[in-house]
Fold these 3 entries.
Entry 1:
Amino acid sequence: MKRVWQFTGLLIGASLFSPSNALAHVIGITIDSFDTPQEVGELGASQVAENGGIILGGFRDLSGNASINNSVSSGSGLMTWDGDDSPFTVDTTGLGGLDLTQDGEATDFEVEILLSDLSGMQLTLNVFDMNSNVSTLSRVFNSAILTPTTELFSFTTFTGTADFTNIGAIQLRVAGPPEIDVQIGSIETFGPHSQGPLPVPESSSSLALLSGAMLLVASRKIRRR
């Protein structure tokens, strides 16, 4: 008689208790998911209201050589988030004093870049506070980006005097060589929470232990020869 012990259930139960299974807190604000389509139009600039996606402040302004349909497709374009106003001006009070830092927890802008088919793409972020102070950060990419990537723009590396806890408008400018094709998937803020991993509720732990033990018994087999 040969006995074969299978420990699948025990491993499942143990993994639920492992500290590595706990998820870290993440603080963030979605600036734009780019799910609401938009064209610049004949006037060279347009505004669109949030419809089927997330747009900070409910409205997005777009100008330049760009269009939006689930992502930003642009050779050169400017997007502005400043509430409901003219797409030809920036209302530096349009977002009403937004705290981009989320009480000090968020630390970066996170831009999802889906494509930049040529080198030389430049992304510029402008933030305006409620007192019309502005801070800016530009970054040039010296290589093409052919697979999706996420780029972080730290608040601490901006130059200027804007108060990131009292923001009224945000802009993202895309530029590059005349023939460049750029696609941006989303823009949001990001920051790991300082309090560390999420706790596992006691009731869930007890249930996990019981489930693991039951699976262990169920999976134990005796093979006879």
Entry 2:
Amino acid sequence: MVTDMVPKFWQWFLDNRPTLEVSSADIAAGLVTTELADIDLRLSAEISFDDEEPELIISANGIRELFETVQNLVDATPVGLNWTVSALKPPRGFNFEITKDGSASIDASSLKFNPLKTSADPQSVGISIALPRSILNRADVLDIAKLIIETGIGEAAASEIDFLDVASVHGTDEWLPIEDLGRYLYWHKTRCG
């Protein structure tokens, strides 16, 4: 990370805060993401105006090598900004539905996953997530699965998954409920180091 870009980013943010605060959350996030690109093109922003203070989440988009960059950005947040600024997308649980491009809605809380193992690297973490058949044929099915996982367990925990597969919900009666994914990752990490 170019360290002189961090103060430049926050100065831009302070200068543009009035515009950001009257914009929609999506437009404001787009503007901030564009500015973050000067630090690293892979960074992005989420903005929410739902609480008393506006919230900015700076995301590394699951790229572990950028976690320190994101934390450094958050650590440099100007005093008195009156925004809640967080590093990485937090865990939000799986009590949500997702609809992509008018396709069938997916109730995330009803999904299941199955741990995957590889003999090549027993410490690596893999999972298969069961999705409705209507989603499986989409070109972006893995992106949808990643979004569900990242929303549920948070960006840091989701980045611990080394490989991801998707499967049809049929024949998954023995699979684990998606709500157990965070506990499974913790168990795997403590077991395998």
Entry 3:
Amino acid sequence: MEEILKTTATPLTDDHYISSPNMGYGYGKLNVFKAVEAALGKDVDKFATFTGQTLISDTDNVPPTIEATTPKKLYNAYDFEFEAKVSDDVGVKSVTLYYKSEVAETFNSRSFELYSGNKKSGTYTVTVHPSDLPVGNASYYIEAVDYSDNKYKTDTIQATVETGIKPGYSNDFENGADGFVFGGKTPMWEVGVPTYGPKISAKWLKCSRHKT
């Protein structure tokens, strides 16, 4: 009975829990009719379901927008995660990272996955493995496509790939946080202009701080 209730439940998701089952809604909402039919031995997989998009008659010429940190120095001693906030007035169909090393002739691609939010405004992530970018020079850009096939891509970033930081490394965080990894899906550190706390020198506007 437990398995029947799980497999016949209607999945529930939201902007935070974007896949099912999840820790917010479990397996979803009970579908009692479907569960009873399954208990009676009927093939509930033959039940008709309808999915699609609700559209209005109009023309969409507005491309998506992308907000992303684009470091110019990467380290291939560990997996590197790119994060991008992408929004569109109709809906984002895909977000893709294009990258290549200096010896490659064409760009490779890797698809972002929606981590939080929704197709109209969400945060997307993608992981690049050390084997994807050997030490040397590299270039990459991010492209987003909406459901009307409008495209927007960031500038192509010319970056250097190193095995790791070296003695004498320093960073004032004014031009990014290259060399730092803010790991996990709920990182406890962030880089930016402080909005509260003790005053800092006017020479440096940004800093790395612990989220409390």
